[in-house]
Backbone:
């Protein structure tokens, strides 16, 4: 009981700090980095969620692109409101995820990862070639801002400043986190972990592992799509190169750096790896070096990711690893 | 209860199982024996859907389950164990059995989101059920041990416990006694017997002849994928063909 009480306090403190951040640091650049961090958290969390069933997907870049293009095109061409286009785009991503998840479900391990990588590349090439729809290599621009909304008449979000986007990004990331958190702690979460550890056994105890993996893949793609749709309207201009394989791999690195074991892993990884290169951006061309340096340190000394750091420090095993 | 007719499986040109007929009646304890490579495990894989038969049919309780996926067959009531114990190595003993019990419930995405956490289910009787199973198998003291650290004997028993947790009507045990010492063999045999006495039909593959003869009511002998003998342990013991299959042809042959 005691622990539960304190962890609630910590949660409240974190949420409060995030909500109050714009009051102290309203600099547009700071907010921009914070919004990117939120998006990366959402994407890395959904990637980790898919990985819970033992599938390492690189389809996220493609899914984000589909989400961004669908939502943007729906608002530009069909004149839909952002609030309508976002769910439609997300739903569309989930359906595509269902389709390719099922098609790829026979492939395991590295082969699954490879075809998901091809999918991302396929989506990028489609976006470049289908000029009539996507605007080709130049991409889409003048993607409209979300329409102003007011929440219970208390909070008026007109999306004229970054702060409003910041709050929306936070809300979306929070929804994603709660979704994954609930599912992972539900009985379904146990079955997912079981499937990852021993698919044959799970199948023989009566788990439809194919269905489970496809559904979880689709759920992961849903949130990739939500993030993608938001991303498009936030940037207001994007082109196919914004989404390629590199984005897929970056998201994978965020999750891996934080650690796949812990639900906080992708959050820590995405935050650290989004913020650190930006804080040293004064060094300009050296900032990728810092990014790579952090990743290398984690790969060499903290295989289980940054979230394993506290327990490693407690056990003192980090010192042993460093000295050996 | 289980009716197998003409079950055949080719691997390339090789018949691993050839035209096998086999019946298991309700409440029976049937042994499947034979020399190495006779196709016993292949029969299990065919029965449980891990392999698709090249020909023949498997009917369980009037339902044709030939070539159905493993989870479907498992839900019909045929649950197997694996030769090298298949376990969730990162889970504790308790979690292993919990997972098997949960696998039997139907969860949609929606109910998983709304019906509450695992903890809530555990406090509503799931924990007692799991503990009950662990107690039956003498694993209750190990319940918080991570599986990776268990001894081979306990891993085998846990494998059976997982299959038992699925509440099978027919339990398929793939060499449940292999790699066990004398004491473990005795304990595991009596476990198998007590599962059988609860009304579960059992089909078991066994290398330990003495134990198999003692346990089973009916024994089926396979050699190179064909059934060469079927009958009570007594009959099988006396059968010429079985002796030849195990000891080889006489010098004069």
Residues:
């Amino acid at each position: 009981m005691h622990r539960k009480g304190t962890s609630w306090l910590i949660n409240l403190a974190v949420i409060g700090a995030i909500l109050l951040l714009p009051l102290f640091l309203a600099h547009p650049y700071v907010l921009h980095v914070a919004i990117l961090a939120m998006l990366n958290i959402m994407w890395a969390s959904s990637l980790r969620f898919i990985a819970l069933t033992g599938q390492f997907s690189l389809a996220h870049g493609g899914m984000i692109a589909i989400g961004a293009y669908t939502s943007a095109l729906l608002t530009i061409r069909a004149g839909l409101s952002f609030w309508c286009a976002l769910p439609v785009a997300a739903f569309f991503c989930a359906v595509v995820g269902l389709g390719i998840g099922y098609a790829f479900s026979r492939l395991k391990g590295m082969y699954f990862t490879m075809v998901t990588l091809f999918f991302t590349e396929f989506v990028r090439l489609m976006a470049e070639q289908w000029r009539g729809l996507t605007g080709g290599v130049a991409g889409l621009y003048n993607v409209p801002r979300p329409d102003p909304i007011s929440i219970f008449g208390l909070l008026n979000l007109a999306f004229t400043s970054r702060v409003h986007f910041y709050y929306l990004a936070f809300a979306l990331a929070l929804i994603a986190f709660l979704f994954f958190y609930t599912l992972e702690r539900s009985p379904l979460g146990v079955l997912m972990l079981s499937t990852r550890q021993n698919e044959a056994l799970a199948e023989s105890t009566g788990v439809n592992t194919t269905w489970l993996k496809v559904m979880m893949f689709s759920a992961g793609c849903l949130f990739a799509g939500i993030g993608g749709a938001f991303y498009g309207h936030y940037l207001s201009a994007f082109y196919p190169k914004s989404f390629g394989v590199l984005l897929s791999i970056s998201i994978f690195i965020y999750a891996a750096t934080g650690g796949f074991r812990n639900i906080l892993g992708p959050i820590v990884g995405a935050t650290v790896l989004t913020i650190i290169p930006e804080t040293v951006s004064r060094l300009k061309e050296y900032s990728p070096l810092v990014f790579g340096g952090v990743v290398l340190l984690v790969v060499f000394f903290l295989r289980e990711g940054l979230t394993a750091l506290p327990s490693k420090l407690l056990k003192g095993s980090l010192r042993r690893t460093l000295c050996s | 209860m289980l009716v197998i007719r003409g079950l055949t499986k080719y691997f390339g040109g090789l018949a691993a199982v050839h035209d096998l007929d086999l019946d298991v009646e309700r409440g029976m304890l049937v042994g499947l024996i034979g020399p190495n490579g006779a196709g016993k495990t292949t029969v299990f894989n065919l029965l449980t859907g891990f392999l698709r038969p090249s020909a023949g049919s498997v009917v369980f309780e009037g339902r044709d389950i030939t070539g159905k996926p493993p989870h479907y067959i498992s839900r019909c009531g045929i649950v197997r164990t694996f030769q090298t114990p298949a376990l969730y190595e990162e889970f504790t003993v308790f979690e292993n059995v919990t997972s098997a019990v949960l696998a039997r419930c139907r969860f949609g995405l929606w109910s998983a989101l709304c019906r509450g956490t695992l903890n809530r289910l555990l406090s509503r009787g799931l924990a007692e059920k799991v503990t009950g199973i662990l107690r039956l198998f003498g694993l209750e003291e190990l319940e918080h041990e991570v599986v990776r650290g268990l001894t081979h004997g306990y891993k085998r028993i846990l494998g059976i416990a997982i299959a038992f947790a699925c509440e099978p009507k027919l339990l398929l045990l793939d060499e449940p006694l292999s790699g066990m010492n004398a004491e473990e063999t005795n304990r595991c045999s009596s476990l198998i017997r007590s599962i059988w006495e609860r009304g579960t039909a059992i089909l078991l593959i066994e290398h330990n002849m003495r134990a198999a003869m003692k346990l089973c009511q009916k024994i089926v002998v396979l050699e190179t994928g064909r059934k060469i003998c079927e009958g009570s342990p007594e009959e099988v013991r006396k059968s010429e063909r079985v002796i030849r299959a195990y000891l080889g042809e006489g010098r004069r042959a």
